[in-house]
Amino acid sequence: MPERLADRRPDVPASRLVADLVPPPRFRDVSFDSYRADPAVPSQAAAVAAARAFSAAVGDGDSGRRRGWFRRATPAGPGAGIYLDGGFGVGKTHLLASLWHAAAVPAERKLFCTFVELTNLAGALGFASAVETLAQHRLVCVDEFELDDPGDTVLVSTLLGRLSGRGVALAATSNTLPDQLGEGRFAAADFLREIQALAARFTVVRVDGEDYRHRGLPSAPPPVPDAVVASSAVGEGVTLDDFDALAAHLATVHPSRYGPLLDGVRRVHLRGVRTVDDQSTALRLVVLADRLYDRDLPVVAGGVPLDRLFAPELLAGGYRKKYFRAVSRLTALSRAGVH
Description:
Elements lengths: L13 H6 L22 H19 L1 H5 L5 E3 L2 E2 L2 E5 L6 H11 L7 E5 H11 L1 H8 L4 E5 L6 H16 L3 E6 L17 H8 L3 E4 L19 H6 L6 E5 H8 L7 H4 L5 E7 L5 H16 L4 E5 L8 H4 L4 H18 L2
Parallel strand pairs: 3-6, 3-7, 4-5, 5-6, 8-9, 9-10
Antiparallel strand pairs: 1-2
């Protein structure tokens, strides 16, 4: 019988939380040169140039401040941030990982994490210890920057403010401009000061374009019959789960552990995929989709097509950009799963 992800309960020691904060396998070997800028979209080439300049400034240390990247952003301390904003599938994570690789800083002095990993680190170590740990680094890169609740708004704004004030260079990606983080999800107006302070620490670089994962490609492949999903789940590192059981299991695992949940896995099989209308379940599936994509794991899925994973009302709500990104990534992985 193939292993089930729903049976896994990864135990992640605190020491691994920091050691794992490097670009994931899909982006382990990327570079600015391997980024395929669309010649019809000038902002992509401009974003490459801006990210190159930022990474060079990080390596130059104080000389970067003289070139204007690390200007004083707030009275609290010097700002040191570049913010890559654009829709899903335009290569922002590729650029962020390329920036991390290109920065002439020892690997142990630069971190690459997702937003959920950053908030989890602060929770696991405690705020003061997280500040001290992160402040030992010259560069902190945060992918998939989102503010989903007021607590995270205050936590991240304060954390990044402390790091910026201590000279740490910050780089981030998101589908939402920094002064619009939290919009449509909670009473953002009540936390406007924190959001504006956070935005002031970044120079925004726009990355336009269409989703490269589906440029000239057909829509999501048709679902595989559940019997075929099960019969093809053979071999080492192959998992087989019933969709509802896996979704229920994800509720018992912290999202920061979804990466370790996939340790040793090389292909994921899902039976009975259905349309999800519960927002909490949907957001957990978004995180799982991101970790599957990071690890370039093919997905073989039965049930509804993956482009119908999220209910229409979710796709019209405040988290719609997250859901569309997840559908884009899962569709790409499902194409790999049928070949």
